[in-house]
Amino acid sequence: xxxxxxxxxxxxxxxxxxxxxxxxxxxxxxxxxxxxxxxxxxxxxxxxxxxxxxxxxxxxxxxxxxxxxxxxxxxxxxxxxxxxxxxxxxxxxxxxxxxxxxxxxxxxxxxxxxxxxxxxxxxxxxxxxxxxxxxxxxxxxxxxxxxxxxxxxxxxxxxxxxxxxxxxxxxxxxxxxxxxxxxxxxxxxxxxxxxxxxxxxxxxxxxxxxxxxxxxxxxxxxxxxx
Length: 226
Ligand code: U2P
Fold this sequence. Notes:
By secondary structure, this protein is an alpha+beta fold. The chain is built from seven helices and seven strands; from the N terminus they run αβαβααααβαββββ. The strands form two sheets. Strands 1, 2, 4, 5 and 6 form a five-stranded antiparallel beta sheet that branches. The protein has a two-stranded antiparallel sheet with strand order 3-7. It is globular, with a radius of gyration of 20 Å. The chain starts with a helix and ends with a strand. One of its GO terms (biological process) is RNA catabolic process.
């Protein structure tokens, strides 16, 4: 009787531990897209990828696991490094939609390694490496920011638009309120830099953000040409 009990309790403990390991350990994702015109139009400037100047569209910065209190996990699994062979079928799509604009000019591998190792490894309970990159690429199609903005008459033409009109246009186009991040061009104008959308922990659906990142934009912001 006693040994039956101890076997049962061991099994229960094992089951509890396996649930702990498999359950997701973050609350939602930020899916962050950047406007290349704003990345490049700063004092620091940018370098086009080896494949050439990216198309004038928003590109992916990252898919970041986050907690509801505004903090986030990072570098969760030092044993899992970026492995190009696991995403070979996605590379041309990544070159187009997830280019790196930092200097010196690159082919994207360093940027993708950084994003996988810093952020992707913290979502391994939900998405393996291939699923992580594939999920981000699919989300970009769901959250077509340039179309949403253009449909509202907001174009990357160096003009200034109200922050509210940009946010409203994205809400109208995607169904969800975005977080907007600005940076400053060399003349210190506040410009549209990154857009944060929130995604459920499986990576499949956009959701309303549990917490919007604080916007440090002015009320009128420039949408720079690229
Ligand atoms: O904001 C500066 C950098 O901090 C990281 N970041 C920011 C907000 C957040 O919710 N999660 C997060 O990771 C980003 O780092 P990166 O991925 O670029 O190394 C962001 O650029």
